[in-house]
C-alpha cells in the first residue's frame, strides 16, 4: 500500500503502524513509550503526527505508534503544530524527572519552558509504562500501575515485596530514566523491596541471574537450566556446533 | 358522603408510591409500607386498591410523591403519617387532601395532578415514558404498557437491516455524551467480519449530579433490555453486557430481576419468541472509576484489565470486547430504541432539531427551585428548562451560569440562555451535552473555584495513562489553586490556555480532550473574574477565602440577628434591631452570613 510520509512515497504493510513504517525507513519520530517488543501504547503522545486520510479535508492528529495503516494516508511528521504539542508535552513531563540527563536533553531540544519539579515515586519515573510491559513479557505481573489520575504510579501490590517478582530487573533495564533502583553486592540483588540471591556463571564466575529466575526458567521450560551467563552460553553453544559439524 | 363512597369505591384505584433513590432517601419506601399495612386494615373496600412502588418520577424536590390513578392525583412530600388521611379521604371518600397538593407559586392555586405543574407541563417523555407509572420489579406492568411489542414486531416482521434502517432514519444519536449516530454505529458492527458479536449497555454514569441513567435502570429496566435485544438482533450479536456503576445497588437489583423475568417469559435466552434468534445478557458491576464510562476503558474493565482507554483508530464496532465487533450504547440510548421500532422512525424524528432528534433527559440540580429529572425535546432552550420547568434560581438570586455535560462540560453564561440545546449548539458554545447534567449556579458562585472544583475531580478520575491529560490536569490544578488562594500570577491565564489547548489536541481519549472545558469556558465567559483574582486580589463572588473580606452595610442591616446566630466563630456582634458588625480578626470568611442575609446587608470588600 502506498502512503506518503512528508511528501515521500513509501510502501507500507497493511496494518503496520505509522511509527513502525517510519522507523523502518529511518524517518525520525520522537517516542518515549513505544518499544519494538511491545508495540505502541499511545501513552506519552510524543509521537503525534499530522495525518490526512483519503476523502477527508482536514488534517487530524494521531499517535503514530498506535495508528494502523489501512489506507493511502498522507503523514506529516514535523510541523509547527506538532512541534508545539511536543514542546508542551516535554514541558509537562520533564517536571517528573527534571535532573535526568535524557530529559534535560529533550527540554533543550524542544525549547520547553520549565515548570517546578514534581516529586514522583519512584523518583524520575515518567510513567511511560515500559517496565509494566517488560514484566508482563517476562511472564510475570510483579509490578503494575496503581491508583489513577495524578496519583498514578508504578508499584508492587501494596508496595510490599511481591511473590511474583523474581528479581530479573528487566523493568530496570528498560526504564529510560533509570528510575527503578537496583542494588547489588557480591552475592545479592535488591529490587522493589525484595532481596535475591545471585547465581554465578559456572564458566566465568560472573553473577548473571537470581536464584528465582533460574527456578522460573526451569519450571516454565521443563528443562534443567545450565547455569551460564549470556556470553558463556553463546560461547558454549558455538563450541558445540563446531564439535558436531566436524 | 355515602354516595361518594359508593361511587368511588367501585373504581379500581391504583396507588403509585415513588421509591426512586431520591424518594427512598426521603422515606418513600416507608410510605409504601404504610399503605400496604393500612389498606389491609380497612374492610370497606368494594375493590381493593392496587399498590405499587415505582421508579423515580423526576420531581425529587417534592418527594416522596404518591399518585392515585385513574384520577391522576399527585401528593407531594408525603410521610407515613399522611397515609391514613389519604386512604380515608381520597381512596374511600373521593375527596382531596388539599395540604398535600402542589401549590403553584405564582397563582397560589392547588393543583391536583403533577401534569398541571410547570415542572411537568413542558416535558415530553420518551425514554422516561414508563417510569413512575409501573412497578419496575413486575414485567407484567411493562408488557401492559406496550413492552416487548417492538421486539415481537422486529423478530417476526423485520430483518436486522430493517431495524438498523429504522434507527438510522430516526436520527437517534448516542445519549452518553458523544452524540454519535446510533444507526451508523450499528451498521458498522453488522458489516464487520467476525463472530461472536457483543452488545454493551453503558450504565457507568459518573458525572457529579447526574442520575438519568440510574433512574431508567431503576425505574424501567425492561426498556433497556428490550432495546439491547433489538440491537443484538439488528447486528447479529449473541451476548450482551450491562456495565452498571457499582454504587447503583437498586439498579443492579431491578436489572437482575428483569433479566430473569425476561428469560422466563422467553424474551431472552435461546430461540427468542420462537424466531430462531438467541441472545442473553449478563450484568457486570463497575470498578468505581469515572473513566470506565469511556467505551474502550469500559471494555478493558469487562475484560478484567485496568480501566484505561485505548486509541480509537479502529472503533469498538469493528474490534471491541475481546477483539470482536461490539456495539456499546448508553442506557438512555437503549431506552429510546423500542419506541423507535414500535412507533416508527418518523414519529421519533418529528421531535427535536434538524441535527439532534428526539428528546433528552437532563438532571437539573444546583441552585434551582425544582431539582429533578426532566425530559424535553431537543431544541428546548436552557431558559425554558431552568426558569419554566426548574422554577428559576433558588432564593430568587441572580442566575450566573449553568454547567452542562458534567466535569468535562463547560459553563454557559446568561447571555446564552436562549440557546436551543442540542449536541451541536452546546459544543459550539464551548461546552457539551455530555450525559445531560445541568448544574445551575447563582451569583454567589466563583467561576474560578468552579473550574478548580472540576479539574480537581478529574485529577482523581483521569486514568493517568497519557501525558497531556495526567500532567496537564496537574498543572491546571496547581495554577487554579494558586489563583483561588490569591497567589495568581499575570502569566497564569495564558499558561492555562496553552496547557488546555495542548490537552484538547494531544490527549488519548475524550476525557483528556474535554477535561479543560471547564477552564476554557469560564475563561471565555468569565475572564473578568480570573483577572479580578489575579490583578485586584478579589473574589467577586465572595467564595475564595484569602481574597474576601466581609462587612455589614449599616444602611441595609435591620439588626435581625440571623447572621450573628449562624456565625460559627462568634465574629458578629450587635444588639437586636441595631446594626451588626463583623470582627475581621475573628472572621474565618466562611460566607454563611453573606449567603443567608435576607437584606443583602453583608457585603464584600
Radius of gyration of chain A: 22 Å
- Which structural category fits the helices and strands of chain B? alpha/beta
CATH topology of the largest domain in chain B: Rossmann fold
Number of helices of chain A: 7
Uncertain segments of chain B of ≥5 residues (pLDDT<50)?
A: 1-6
Largest sheet of chain B: 5 strands, mixed
What share of the residues of chain A does DSSP label as strand, in percent?
Answer: 15-25%
The CATH fourth-level homologous superfamily of the largest domain in chain B = NADH-ubiquinone oxidoreductase 51kDa subunit
The level of helicity of chain A is 25-40%
Major sheet strand order of chain B: 12-11-15-13-14
- Most extensive interface: A-B, 34 and 32 residues
Using the alpha-carbon principal axes, give the shape of chain A.
Answer: globular
* Share of helix of chain B, binned: 25-40%
Which stretches of chain A are poorly predicted, pLDDT < 50 over at least 5 residues? none
Chain-averaged pLDDT of chain A: 95
Whole-number total of structural domains of chain A: 2
The structure class of chain A reads alpha+beta
Give the percentage of residues in beta strands of chain B. Answer: 5-15%
CATH class of the largest domain in chain B: Alpha Beta
Roughly how many Å apart are the termini of chain A? 47 Å
Amino acid at each position: 500500500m502506498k502512503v506518503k510520509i512528508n511528501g515521500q512515497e513509501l510502501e507500507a504493510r497493511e496494518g503496520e503502524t505509522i511509527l513502525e513504517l517510519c522507523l523502518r525507513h529511518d524517518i525520525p519520530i520522537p517516542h518515549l513509550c513505544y518499544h519494538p517488543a511491545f508495540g505502541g501504547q499511545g501513552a506519552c503522545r510524543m509521537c503525534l503526527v499530522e495525518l490526512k486520510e483519503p476523502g477527508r479535508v482536514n488534517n487530524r492528529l494521531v499517535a503514530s505508534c498506535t495508528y494502523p495503516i489501512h489506507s493511502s494516508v498522507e503523514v506529516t511528521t514535523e510541523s509547527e503544530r506538532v512541534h508545539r504539542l511536543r514542546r508542551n508535552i516535554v514541558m509537562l513531563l520533564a517536571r517528573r524527572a527534571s535532573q535526568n540527563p535524557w530529559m534535560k536533553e529533550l527540554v533543550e531540544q524542544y525549547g520547553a519552558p520549565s515548570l517546578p519539579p514534581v516529586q514522583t515515586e519512584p523518583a524520575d519515573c515518567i510513567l511511560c509504562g515500559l517496565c509494566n510491559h517488560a514484566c508482563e513479557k517476562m511472564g510475570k505481573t510483579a509490578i503494575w500501575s496503581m491508583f489513577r489520575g495524578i496519583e498514578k504510579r508504578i508499584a508492587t501490590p501494596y508496595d510490599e515485596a511481591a511473590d511474583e517478582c523474581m528479581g530479573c530487573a528487566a523493568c530496570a533495564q528498560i526504564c529510560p530514566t533509570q528510575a527503578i533502583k537496583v542494588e547489588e553486592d557480591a552475592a545479592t540483588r535488591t529490587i522493589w523491596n525484595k532481596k535475591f540471591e545471585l547465581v554465578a556463571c559456572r564458566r566465568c564466575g560472573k553473577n548473571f541471574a537470581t536464584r528465582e529466575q533460574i527456578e522460573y526458567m526451569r519450571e516454565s521450560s521443563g528443562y534443567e537450566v545450565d547455569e551460564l551467563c549470556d556470553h558463556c552460553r553463546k560461547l558454549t553453544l558455538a563450541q558445540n556446533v563446531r564439535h558436531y559439524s566436524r | 358522603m355515602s354516595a361518594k363512597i359508593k361511587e368511588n369505591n367501585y373504581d379500581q384505584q391504583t396507588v403509585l408510591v415513588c421509591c426512586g433513590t431520591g424518594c427512598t432517601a426521603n422515606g418513600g419506601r416507608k410510605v409504601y409500607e404504610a399503605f400496604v399495612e393500612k389498606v389491609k386494615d380497612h374492610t370497606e373496600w368494594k375493590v381493593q386498591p392496587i399498590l405499587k412502588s415505582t421508579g423515580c418520577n423526576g420531581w425529587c424536590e417534592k418527594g416522596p410523591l404518591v399518585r392515585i390513578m385513574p384520577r391522576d392525583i399527585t401528593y407531594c412530600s408525603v410521610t407515613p403519617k399522611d397515609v391514613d388521611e389519604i386512604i380515608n379521604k381520597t381512596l374511600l371518600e373521593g375527596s382531596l387532601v388539599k395540604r398535600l397538593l402542589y401549590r403553584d407559586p405564582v397563582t397560589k392555586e392547588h393543583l391536583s395532578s403533577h401534569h398541571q405543574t410547570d415542572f411537568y407541563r413542558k416535558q415530553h417523555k420518551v425514554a422516561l415514558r414508563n417510569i413512575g407509572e409501573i412497578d419496575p420489579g413486575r414485567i407484567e406492568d411493562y408488557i401492559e404498557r406496550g413492552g416487548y411489542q417492538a421486539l415481537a414486531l422486529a423478530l417476526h416482521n423485520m430483518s436486522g437491516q430493517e431495524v438498523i434502517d429504522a434507527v438510522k432514519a430516526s436520527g437517534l444519536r448516542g445519549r452518553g455524551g458523544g452524540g454519535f449516530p446510533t444507526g451508523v454505529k450499528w451498521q458498522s458492527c453488522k458489516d464487520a467480519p467476525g463472530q461472536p458479536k457483543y452488545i454493551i449497555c453503558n450504565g457507568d454514569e459518573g458525572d457529579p449530579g447526574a442520575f438519568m441513567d440510574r433512574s431508567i435502570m431503576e425505574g424501567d429496566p425492561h426498556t433497556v433490555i428490550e432495546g439491547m435485544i433489538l440491537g443484538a438482533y439488528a447486528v447479529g450479536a449473541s451476548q450482551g453486557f450491562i456495565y452498571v456503576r457499582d454504587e447503583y445497588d437498586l439498579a443492579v437489583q431491578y436489572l437482575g430481576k428483569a433479566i430473569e423475568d425476561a428469560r422466563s417469559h422467553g424474551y431472552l435466552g435461546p430461540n427468542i419468541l420462537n424466531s430462531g434468534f438467541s441472545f442473553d445478557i449478563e450484568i457486570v458491576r463497575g470498578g468505581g472509576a469515572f473513566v470506565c464510562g469511556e467505551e474502550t476503558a469500559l471494555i478493558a474493565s469487562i475484560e478484567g484489565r485496568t480501566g484505561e482507554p485505548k486509541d480509537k483508530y479502529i472503533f469498538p464496532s469493528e474490534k471491541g470486547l475481546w477483539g470482536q465487533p461490539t456495539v456499546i450504547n448508553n442506557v438512555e440510548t437503549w431506552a429510546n430504541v423500542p419506541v423507535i421500532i414500535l412507533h416508527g422512525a418518523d414519529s421519533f424524528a418529528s421531535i427535536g432539531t434538524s441535527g439532534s432528534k428526539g428528546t433528552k433527559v437532563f438532571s437539573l440540580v444546583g441552585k434551582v427551585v425544582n431539582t429533578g429529572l426532566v425530559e424535553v425535546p431537543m431544541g428546548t432552550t436552557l431558559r425554558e428548562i431552568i426558569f419554566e420547568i426548574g422554577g428559576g434560581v433558588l432564593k430568587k438570586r441572580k442566575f450566573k451560569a449553568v454547567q452542562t455535560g458534567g466535569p468535562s462540560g463547560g459553563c454557559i453564561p446568561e447571555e446564552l440562555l436562549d440557546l436551543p440545546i442540542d449536541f451541536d449548539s452546546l459544543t459550539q458554545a464551548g461546552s457539551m451535552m455530555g450525559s445531560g447534567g445541568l448544574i445551575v449556579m447563582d451569583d454567589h458562585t466563583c467561576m474560578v473555584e468552579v473550574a478548580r472544583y472540576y479539574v480537581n475531580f478529574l485529577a482523581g478520575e483521569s486514568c493517568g495513562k497519557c501525558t497531556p491529560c495526567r500532567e496537564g490536569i496537574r498543572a491546571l490544578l496547581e495554577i487554579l489553586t494558586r489563583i483561588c488562594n490569591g497567589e495568581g500570577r499575570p502569566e497564569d491565564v495564558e499558561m492555562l490556555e496553552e496547557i488546555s489547548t495542548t490537552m484538547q489536541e494531544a490527549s488519548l481519549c475524550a476525557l483528556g480532550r474535554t477535561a479543560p472545558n471547564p477552564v476554557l469556558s469560564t475563561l471565555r465567559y468569565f475572564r473578568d473574574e480570573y483577572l479580578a483574582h489575579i490583578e485586584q486580589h478579589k473574589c467577586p463572588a465572595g467564595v475564595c477565602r484569602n481574597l474576601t473580606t466581609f462587612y455589614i452595610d449599616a444602611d441595609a442591616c435591620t439588626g435581625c440577628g440571623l447572621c450573628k446566630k449562624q456565625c460559627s466563630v462568634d465574629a458578629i456582634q450587635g444588639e437586636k434591631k441595631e446594626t451588626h458588625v463583623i470582627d475581621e480578626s475573628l472572621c474565618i470568611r466562611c460566607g454563611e452570613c453573606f449567603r443567608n442575609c435576607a437584606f443583602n446587608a453583608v457585603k464584600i470588600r
